[in-house]
Amino acid sequence: MRARRAKLIFPLATLVLLCSGCASYSDSFSVIESDMAAQRFGAALETLERQRHPKRDQLLYLLNKAMLERMNGDYAASNRTFEAAKAGMEELRGLSLREQGQSLLINDATRSYAGEEFEQVLVHLYMALNYLQLGERIDARVEALQVDERLREITQRLPENRYTEDALARYLTGMIYEEFGERSDAMIAYRKAYEAYRRYGQNYSVAVPESLKHDLLRLSQQMGLTGEMQQYRKEFRIERWMSADELTEQGELIFLLHNGLAPIRREHAVTVPDPASGHFVRIALPYYESRPTPVDGARVTAGGTSASAEVAEDIRAIALKDLETKMPAITARALARAVLKAQMAKAARENARQQNQNNAGAAVAAMAVEIAGLVTERADTRSWLTLPSRIHLARLPLPPGTYTVKVDLLGDDGQIVSTQEYANMDIRRGAKTWLSPHWIPSTVTPPRRSQ
Amino acid sequence: MMGFSFRINSSLVQALAVSALALSIAGCGTSVERIDTAEVKDLSGAWNDTDSRLVSEEMIQDVLSRDWLPEFTRKYSKKPAVIVGEVLNLSHEHVNVNTFTADMERALINSGKVQFVASRNERGEVREERKDQDIHAAEATRKPMGQERGADYMLKGTINTIIDTSGSSQVRYYQVDLTFISLADNVKVWVGQKKIKKLVKRGNLRY
Fold first, then answer.
1. What are phi and psi of A127, to 5 degrees?
2. Between chains, do A355 and B5 touch, taking CB under 8 Å as contact?
3. Distance, in angstroms, between A96 CA and closest chain B CA?
4. pLDDT score for A357
5. Do B206 and A362 touch (CB under 8 A)?
6. Domains in chain B, please, with CATH?
7. b/e for B61-91, b at 16 or more Cβ within 10 A?
């Protein structure tokens, strides 16, 4: 008996070693999360650099790095990293039979992470915001065109009920075109944003932002689309809005608050004995756990006028819905894996039985196959974890000048959670000034072990 | 005893080890190969050096062969001075426009028929130096302010793209328009155009 136990140690040790490689991705992120919560983005970057990133998680590493660089205020570096991430996504377009095979034999997390569709679109959104922050409007416009291309590709590929439009990305591209004086492109983008927000209303309960309504009215009026303008007037019940001429006399502050952190994927696993054989079967599936934020809105004040920020993108809701629509496929793969692993364990046991009854090696090998099958069954808990939970938007038209912008972050019943001031914000005539800070609550979810 | 299955296992392990080694050897070590700048190497289908070169070759050849140049020289009996303005990148990609505007600048200067004056970005430092000379340089070598040569024409342009994608195939169409605009009266004396079209096919499978 002792000899047998000794022989067991070797394969078990190997398994333990193997398993250290498949520890759930989301669990390894808690250190970075607490750095972010303490607003120590530089330290978070260092931690990220210290961690090991297997080749299959390279894209996630780049996305998180770019986002942390952005939070750290290094917009140029952030865009260089995002550009590398884009190249990585491009490389991962094709289907890898090798990885498909692995995902069926081992688990889904062995596949290269190519980003969910909404994450791919948000890369362009954040790059555009970085460029706008740097004052490089031409490059922001390039990103706007790429958003269009990306969304077109996704619409072609995916069915209606999936995430195929991004309202905020559309809205942002509209603002970029409008600033370039490209009114027809801007109008098309605003219309698409409006359509997308109406779908957001049904899917994620995000309403059409008031500022977009005003944009639609202003631009349709300016372009002489009277019929369309009347229709919007009736729909929105808005009678007064700032005309295009009035707006070009002024400058505008565009405030985007990147609030909280996107939900995190955890693993839910069940191990049950198969009644037919008496051996164990394990199935592990991912689910989203929200990372709550106390901030529910924001009020932006500059030069005596103020505007309240509305929810323009609910990444949390998009992520939840996205996983929900992908769940049938994920479950089917997990079941296929369970069947395959059970078959392999059974074959190994048969093999051991056919051999000499005293053949300890074969028995150990058979047990190792079974244990490996159980232990390697892990859910794919990878996602872009530095994304915010929600993005709030406010537009504030202001006479040209230099302002100190005050931002009150509001809780769910309107109380002020935190106040931030941004001094020396230049508002130029007929131009947009961008301000898009991140807010990460100091109360993060405590690190927890997956079962 | 446990002979058969283990013998297979060990040969399998050996095969795996050898292939893993082969893979890791193939993967390690940086290799650098110098290639001619004129060689066409298309990797991703995005804008690259070849596109830039095609644009500058076409534009240079065109701009030197047109009538605006001899006409200007005849009328004013001097070489026209050109300033490089902004080439707007309205394309889907982050294109570096400096490569072909620099190519054009060089070819035009070397032709001996056109002069270039420092562009908006370049002249700041020159002016600072002149201001500095005013205080520190000897009288004989001092360059006075207000003596800059004003440009006669400005080189401006746009890059536009149309991208059509279906499945794994993509048609990428680039159109580069460059123009010389007279600073005296806004007349466009030359418009050059280069169109590039590529068909990019992406593999549906990867390793």
1. -65, -40
2. yes
3. 5
4. 62
5. no
6. 46-201 (3.40.50)
7. eebeeeebbeebeeeeeebbebbbbebbbbb
* Among B161, B166, B203, beta carbon nearest to A94: B203
Cα gap A104→A369, rounded to integer Å: 15
B165/A153 CB distance under 8 A: yes
State both tokens at A214: 């005003």
| Contact flag A145-B2 (C-beta cutoff 8 Å) | no
Q: CA B24, CA A211: separation in Å to the nearest integer?
A: 56
Q: B115: buried, middle or exposed (CB in 10 Å: 19+, 13-18, 0-12)? A: middle
8 Å CB contact of B1 and A90: no
Task: Enumerate the domain spans of chain A.
Answer: 27-208+250-439
Report how far apart, in Å, the C-alpha atoms of A16 and of each of A10, A51, A110, A371, B86 are: 10, 20, 17, 11, 61
> Does residue B28 belong to the interface with chain A, where contact is any CB pair within 8 Å?
no
The closest CB to that of A149, out of B1, B5, B163, belongs to B163
Residue A343 phi, psi dihedral angles, 5° rounding: -60, -45
pLDDT of A13 reads 45
The dihedral region occupied by A304, where left means phi > 0, alpha psi between -120 and 50, and beta the remainder, is left
* Tokens 């007037």, residue located: A233
Considering CB atoms only, which of A90, A97, A141 is closest to B205? A97
Mean pLDDT of the B71-90 span: 92
- A274-302 tens-digit pLDDT: 777 777 888 889 999 998 888 999 999 99
- The pLDDT tens digits for B158-202 are 999 998 888 788 899 999 999 999 999 999 999 999 999 999 988
Q: Which two tokens stand for residue A42?
A: 């530089």
Minimum distance, in Å, between the CA of residue B45 and any CA atom of chain A:
11
Q: Which of A96, A145, A362 lies nearest to residue B2, judging by beta carbons?
A: A362
Those residues of chain A that have pLDDT short of 50 are 1-22, 444-451
Do B89 and A138 count as a contact with CB atoms less than 8 A apart? yes
pLDDT digits (tens, 9 = 90+) for B13-45: 555 555 555 554 444 568 888 888 888 888 888
Chosen for mutation from A145, A182, A369 (greatest number of chain B CBs closer than 10 Å) is A145
Which B residues in the span 39-58 are in contact with A, Cβ-Cβ below 8 Å?
44
A325, amino acid identity: T
Give the tens place of pLDDT for each residue, B83-113: 999 898 999 888 888 888 898 899 889 999 9
